[in-house]
């Protein structure tokens, strides 16, 4: 799933390719992905692409006076197409969910792999009309997101597990499963640790969050959309690396399996050498 660093890089890449270009049409092939009906899809045609922005993990393309909002979810992606497609796209065939066509035939293909479809597209006059954007928490890279702000968020979360707090988009925007694993590994904290913690721990976690996200953005800076998935994978220390050696201490990276996701961690770095069995049976490790 693309998270804050990848969506940030997509914004940078697409701004260079699309800003000031004229949209010929926007075709939706996966009708379940389109979550709005007014304004209609046709309202994007014959308008210029304006600013491209990010709201948490949501991508926001300004087209004329409207906004095309894209949430790529678990298996969605965007592919730049430099030339006109050779064949017309048909609904219900293959991974193509939508296609933005510019006046010279180039444009974007929005795809979604797999059978579990959760890609979401919105056409709105105001991004805050998208429920997921309206309920977003603060962005961790905003200038006003200070360590004091973070301490207040954690204090309010109380005994909630820190892994879940970092992933909750209504609490902090943009961090998902992968980067929450990476942040906690950098901070040397258990994913099951309560959010309410000492001032020293807050400071350590805040620094790990800032460093992890900013370094990921720096690695992705200037990369095309087609290169971002590979870059994300190569930069991860623990997430998705079950059974491999921890790059910090050499211990074996473990995982906890949930119903629809997994988390990865290093026992030596994060839990005092104690493996976590699962979220039900493992006690909270401080």
From TrEMBL:
InterPro entries in the cross-refs: FPG_cat, FPG_N, H2TH_FPG, Ribosomal_uS13-like_H2TH, Znf_DNA_glyclase/AP_lyase
The Formamidopyrimidine-DNA glycosylase catalytic domain, residue ranges: 2-119
Recorded catalytic activity of this chain's protein: Hydrolysis of DNA containing ring-opened 7-methylguanine residues, releasing 2,6-diamino-4-hydroxy-5-(N-methyl)formamidopyrimidine
Coiled coil region boundaries: none
UniProt cross-references to Gene3D superfamilies, sorted A to Z: 1.10.8.50, MutM-like, N-terminal
Ranges where the FPG-type domain occurs: 237-271
Keyword entries, A-Z: DNA damage, DNA repair, DNA-binding, Glycosidase, Hydrolase, Lyase, Metal-binding, Multifunctional enzyme, Zinc, Zinc-finger
UniProt family annotation: Belongs to the FPG family.
PANTHER family found in the cross-reference section: FORMAMIDOPYRIMIDINE-DNA GLYCOSYLASE
Name recorded for this polypeptide: Fpg/Nei family DNA glycosylase
């Amino acid at each position: 799933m693309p998270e804050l660093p990848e969506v940030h890089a997509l914004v940078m890449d697409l701004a260079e390719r699309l800003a000031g270009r004229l949209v010929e049409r926007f075709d939706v092939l996966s009708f379940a992905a389109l979550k709005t009906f007014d304004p209609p899809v046709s309202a994007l045609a014959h308008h210029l692409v304006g600013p491209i922005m990010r709201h948490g993990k949501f991508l926001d393309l300004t087209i004329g006076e409207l906004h095309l909002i894209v949430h790529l979810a678990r298996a969605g992606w965007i592919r730049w197409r430099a030339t006109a497609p050779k064949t017309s796209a048909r609904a219900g065939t293959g991974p193509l969910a939508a296609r933005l066509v510019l006046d010279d035939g180039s444009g974007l293909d929005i795809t979604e792999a797999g059978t579990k479809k959760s890609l979401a597209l919105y056409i709105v006059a105001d991004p805050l009309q998208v429920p997921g954007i309206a309920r977003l928490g603060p962005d961790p890279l905003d200038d006003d997101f200070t360590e004091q702000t973070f301490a207040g968020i954690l204090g309010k979360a109380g005994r909630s597990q820190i892994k879940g707090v970092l992933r909750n988009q209504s609490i902090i925007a943009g961090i998902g499963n992968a980067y929450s694993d990476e942040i906690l590994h950098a901070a040397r904290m258990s994913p099951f640790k309560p959010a309410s913690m000492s001032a020293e721990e807050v400071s350590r976690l805040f620094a790990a969050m800032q460093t992890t996200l900013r370094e990921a953005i720096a690695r992705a800076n200037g990369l095309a959309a087609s290169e971002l998935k590979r870059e994300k994978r190569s930069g991860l220390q623990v997430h998705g690396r079950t059974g491999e050696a921890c790059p910090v201490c050499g211990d074996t990276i473990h995982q906890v399996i949930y119903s629809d996701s997994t988390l990865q961690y290093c026992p030596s770095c994060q839990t005092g050498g104690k493996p976590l069995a699962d979220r039900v049976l493992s006690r909270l490790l401080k």
